[in-house]
Amino acid sequence: RHGGYPHRRAVYANSAVLGVIQGGRRDADR
């Protein structure tokens, strides 16, 4: 089976989105 756990993909996507959001927030905080 390819990509047995779609949940894992969602978690990865969430992590990436959160990282980008936090990065933008840090930039604005500067």
UniProtKB/TrEMBL annotation:
Full protein name: Uncharacterized protein
Organism: marine sediment metagenome
